[in-house]
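Can't paste images in this forum, so I'm doing it all in text. The chain is below; anyone willing to post the predicted structure tokens underneath?
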Amino acid sequence: MQAESNSAIEEESGSSYLQYLPAIYKKDEFTGRFLRIFEDILQPIEGVVDNVPYYLDPAVTPEPFLPWLASWLGLALDERWPIDRRRRLVASAAELHRWRGTRRGMTEFLKIYSGVMPQIAEATSRPRTSLGSDTKLGVDTYLGGGGGAFHFTVTIGGENLSNIDIGIVRAIIEVQKPAHTTYSLNVLGQSLAEREEEHGA
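Text version of the structure:
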């Protein structure tokens, strides 16, 4: 009967803090109502503290919290990215920093954004010679060198590229490439004018 009486007082007062007090205080309705004031203030804070591990997980953290989490890793998120890809970027940030400036790092970064595996080809040295009667331009003779030894080509292609912003792709390449290099961007499925873009260091 005593236990039922205490439960009835707690239910009426609405304060769960009564369970932590000595039995003599649990019988006082005023104490229950008074504790409810503090409970209403502290419950939201307790909820946040209880869920801290989820706030630190890029896969489930609330969307407004994601840019702050990214700032811990030296990332400035682009709001134009779909939210699922922004989450993957934050989750992969440490590994991407490790490989920044390499083919592997750029490939992974572009894959996270585009959802497809890009192809990155580095320029090979080509002999430069003058044109003669037996030479064929573009077959066994090349002029200009296509950017030289510090030039590479990025090719992105897939069945569904409609959601890919070419401007974002270029921004990723500019950030990830070594400063002294140049590149060509080849996006399969685009018009000829958009398909090839030359960029300097």
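Residues 2 and 26 are 11 Å apart (CA to CA). The longest helix spans residues 29-50.
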